[in-house]
Amino acid sequence: MPDRLLFIDTETGGLDPHKHSLLSLAMVVWEVGEILDSMEILINDGILAVTDEALSINKIDLETHKQLAVSTSRAYDEMVVFIRKYFPGQGKITLAGHNVQFDAGFLRSFFAANHSDFSEFFSHRMIDTSSILHYLYLSGRMKQRAVSSDDAFRLFNIQVEGRHTALGDAMATARLFTSLLHLIEQ
Fold this sequence. Notes:
There is one protein chain. It contains 8 helices and 6 strands. By secondary structure, the chain is of the alpha/beta class. The chain has one domain: Nucleotidyltransferase, domain 5, CATH 3.30.420.10. Strands 4-3-2-1-5-6 form a 6-stranded mixed beta sheet, sandwiched between helices.
C-alpha cells in the first residue's frame, strides 16, 4: 500500500495546539485517486478551550458538541482502530491535507494527551496541497494563484459538503489532490 495516504483535517478551538482544544478530527483514506473510507470524530477534552473567532469559522455550537462528542481517550481509541484497519503493518503513515502542519500540530498534542507517540504511527513526511498549489503556480503550470483552500476548491470546481467541518474539508482536500495529479498528467 505505498500509495495509500491519510488525509486529515481538524476543527479546533483556536490556533495553538498547546492552549486550544481539538474539537473534531476527520480521516480520509485515499489510494490511487479513490477515497476508500472516511471517519469523523467529535472530541470533548473536558476543557473545551475555544476562542470566539474559531467558533465563528467552524460554526460549532458548544452545547450540541458536548452532547455528541466523545472523550479524548475514546476518540484516540477510535482513531487507532480506523488507521490500523486501513494501514496494517505498513509502517509510518503519510499524512496529507491542506496546510497539514496545522492539523498535525493538534494531532501531536492529541497523541501526547493520550500518552502515545505521534511518530510511532506517522511519517515526518507529509503532503500539503497548499504547497503543491503554490509550486504549480510559481512553475507556470497554473495561471491562477489559488493557495487557499477556498480558492482551490473554486478553481477546480470541487463542491464541499459541510465546509468548515473536519470531514467536509478533508474529503474536498482529497478530491483536490486527485485533481492536482490529473493537472500534471496533461
